[in-house]
Design a protein that fits this description.
Strand content: under 5%
Keywords: Sigma factor, Transcription, Transcription regulation
Largest sheet: none
CATH topology of the largest domain: Rna Polymerase Sigma Factor, Chain: A
Helix content: over 70%
CATH class of the largest domain: Mainly Alpha
Family: Belongs to the sigma-70 factor family. ECF subfamily.
Number of strands: 0
GO molecular function: DNA binding; sigma factor activity
Number of domains: 2
Protein name: RNA polymerase sigma70 factor
Order of helices and strands: HHHHHHHHH
Radius of gyration: 17 Å
Pfam family, one: Sigma70_r4_2
CATH architecture of the largest domain: Orthogonal Bundle
Number of helices: 9
CATH superfamily of the largest domain: RNA polymerase sigma factor, region 2, helix turn helix motif
Length: about 190
């Protein structure tokens, strides 16, 4: 987090609503995408996103380290998603966010992406969460450990087991290539 962002956090903690809105604007796309994967429809994702913003605004004065604002906000969003899903108690499949951009992409690639996302959505939450944070949000293992408030070793184990579960579900060459590249990157 840059010094400017940390300054915005401090200002927001002291009641500067404009600073808070600027901070949220920087994180909104990342948070919305993750909420969408959890709740699997646009209206629910917007509702979870709004709940996240309200909780963040209310809890901001208690944030001890301004530099961890993004990880703190992501943790709030994950908790809001889990609470929302527990209340709603529904499971649906979700298409990859990038599907709208695949008009000129081969049908085989689209099928592979859908298969991967469907398999990812069927994973246990602990595996789905770490894989989303690591490979779709580009958080480091250390950052994921901070977000989830667990040891780095646990994060690594969940990543490895999540990738193994994906491999078992999909057993295809394209998945093996993706898993191998994912395993090399962490």
């Amino acid at each position: 987090m840059t010094t400017t962002q940390q300054s915005l956090v401090v200002l927001a903690q002291h009641g500067d609503e404009e600073a808070f809105y600027q901070l949220i604007e920087q994180e909104q796309h990342k948070l919305y995408r993750m909420a969408y994967v959890y709740v699997q429809n646009e209206n629910d994702a917007i509702e979870v996103f709004q709940q996240t913003i309200i909780r963040a605004y209310e809890g901001l004065p208690q944030l001890k380290e301004p530099r961890y604002f993004a990880t703190w906000l992501t943790r709030i969003m994950i908790n809001c998603c889990k609470t929302y899903m527990a209340k709603k108690n529904t499971i649906q499949l979700v298409e990859p966010q990038s599907l709208a951009d695949l008009n000129s992409t081969s049908p085989t690639y689209i099928e592979e992406e859908l298969d991967l996302w469907q398999a990812l959505c069927q994973l246990e939450d602990k595996y789905k969460t770490v894989l989303l944070l690591r490979f779709y949000q580009d958080y480091s293992v250390k950052d994921i450990a901070v977000i989830l408030q667990c040891p780095e070793g646990t994060v690594k184990t969940h990543i490895r087991r999540g990738l193994q579960a994906l491999r078992q579900q999909l057993k295809g060459a394209y998945l093996d290539e993706w898993v191998q590249s994912a395993e090399r990157s962490h």
